[in-house]
Amino acid sequence: MDDLERLAGAIRRADTAVAVTGAGLSAPSGVPTFRGDDGIWDRFDERQFTSDRFRRDPAGFWTDRVALHRAMFDEEYEPNAGHEALAAMGWDGNLEAILTQNTDGLHGDAAGAGGERTNDGEPDVAAETETTVLELHGNSRWVRCTDCGNRRDGDPIVERAAAGELPPTCECGGVFRPDVVLFGDRLPDAVLQRARSLARESDVFLAIGSSLVVEPAASLPRLAASTGATVAIVNLEPTPCDGIAETVLREDVTAVLPRLRDLTTA
Ligand code: APR
Fold first, then answer.
1. 1-31+79-137+187-265 in CATH: which number?
2. What does pTM read for this prediction?
3. How far is the centre of ligand 1, averaged over its atoms, from the C-alpha of 169 (Å)?
4. Which residue has a Cα nearest atom 16 of ligand 1?
5. Is the interface score ipTM higher than 0.90?
6. For the segment 35-61, what is each residue's pLDDT rounded down to a tens digit?
7. Edge-to-edge strands, sheet with 17-21
């Protein structure tokens, strides 16, 4: 029996399997990762995208945000075989929750799942699948007014900023901000607590396509392991959690996850 078959067996036996995902899952869809070869943070200075800078200099923040948004989301991305496999595992009843760091919304597209909002705690779309999709860092497809809380489709607002409305403002006079967790923001307590309780409850915890260097994702595998979960990591490069994982698969998500899903239904 190889590693993948052993992992599939553990998932089949599990009451609760949970996955945390990162940019490596969306990379095959064309969405750039943040670290590694030609990562976003090699091209942009992450210090320009902090919540402190947004407060101090919203016009300058939005000038840089337009370039970042276009670098990340300038084409229509589609879910890839990795997203589809995780969605299918949800439909199979083999995946309780996906805790994603990604803000591209592709898990929601793949599973038709409700992305539970980081910012207002309400499901983004009616969840149509067994799997909870928790968007830990929000969703870049949306912006939100800092005064009235109004949430809008982000693209037209980004285009208004690109055309010189800096910062883009709401009818109420408030300033729009991306509906994502910026560096320096705290994650809403409800989301953080939900993610941590899912990690604690899990019998199997998968970390997929993440360098596992940014909190809270970085600590979730350890939290899961501390309450007895079997941890498995699928990532092309080493992560700080490799040492606590029973299984480490240095393979492409689009190769591994469909095989894993098939084995969990065999
Ligand atoms: N298959 C498997 N792993 C892959 C693939 C692939 N096709 N492509 C890339 N990877 C791996 C890379 O080796 C890398 O270790 O995915 C990982 C992506 O790591 P990061 O780019 O650091 O992305 P992530 O872990 O999601 O970053 C976390 O940092 O900047 C913040 O808010 C941002 O959510 C992001 C957070």
1. 3.40.50.1220
2. 0.92
3. 32
4. 24
5. yes
6. 978 899 999 999 999 999 999 999 999
7. 115-116, 132-135, 97-100, 17-21, 204-208, 230-234, 247-249
